[in-house]
Each structure stands twice: as structure tokens, then as C-alpha cells.
Model the fold of this input.
Amino acid sequence: MAAETTMTDKLFRVAVLLKGLDGAVQLIGGVLLIFLPPDIVTRFAHAVVTRDLLGPPAGSLAGHFEEAAQHFASGGSTFVIAYLIAHGVIKIGLVIGLLLKIMPLYPVALTALGLFVIFEVLRAVQTRSIALPFFAALDVVIIILVLREYLELRRRSS
Done:
């Protein structure tokens, strides 16, 4: 098989590695949240907000962050932990499959990424998040790169 030399090949590899890093951070975060008491999470969120790390303390981003931490502390932790761990495991598994060029995983990855985009857009509408549309757009770019790589691999194998 030819060596990866095109810009698209390099972008594909970088995008997939970033997705893998994102998945690893989510997995580690989910596991850590199992062991962190909820009051530590809310104190951390309050410290971030009061130090203007997310803009002004009365701003919408800071408000969303603190609201999410309070929801977590008031019993919403199971969903958050399960979501982070599942999301992380799925991403890491798909990244490994894509880097190893396991052809049957490409459609699975495209479907999973498409579902992530739908979820991110729906959550952005519900929460008025400014970050989620950015992540959805990034996932759309990754979908395009994965699709191009898949079509190229199919073309080479036939």
C-alpha cells in the first residue's frame, strides 16, 4: 500500500488522533468523577467561574458551567459519568479501528460521528451552548475526512 503523503491523509490522521485524545480525556474524566465527591465538583466549578476563567461570572458560559456542576452534585452524576465513559470508550475503539484501517469500522465510525453531531446540535439548542456547535462542526469535518479515507481505501482494494 502506498505511503500516506497527501494533505488529506495527514489531516485524516491528525483528526482521528485528536478524536482519540478527546476520547481518552472523556474516559479518564468519567472514571475520575466516580471517585470525586460532588461537593468537590461544585467547588471547582465555583472557583473557575469566580476567577473569570469562562468570561464574566454573570455571563452565559459561566452560568451554564456552574448550572451543570450543580446538576451533577444534585444527583445527575450517573448520567454524566456513564456518558463520558461510554463516549470515551466508543471514540477510542473507533480511532484504533480507523488507524488500523479496519474497513468494516468506517461505516460504524461515520454513523457514530453522525449521531454525535445530532446529539451536539440538539443539546446546543436546548442549552444555548456556544461550544457545542463548534464541536459539531469539527465532527462534520472529521466525518468528511473519514468518508474520503474510506472511499479511497475501497478504491485501492478493488
Notes: The mean pLDDT is 82. Helices lie at 7-35, 38-50, 60-99, 105-127, 132-157.
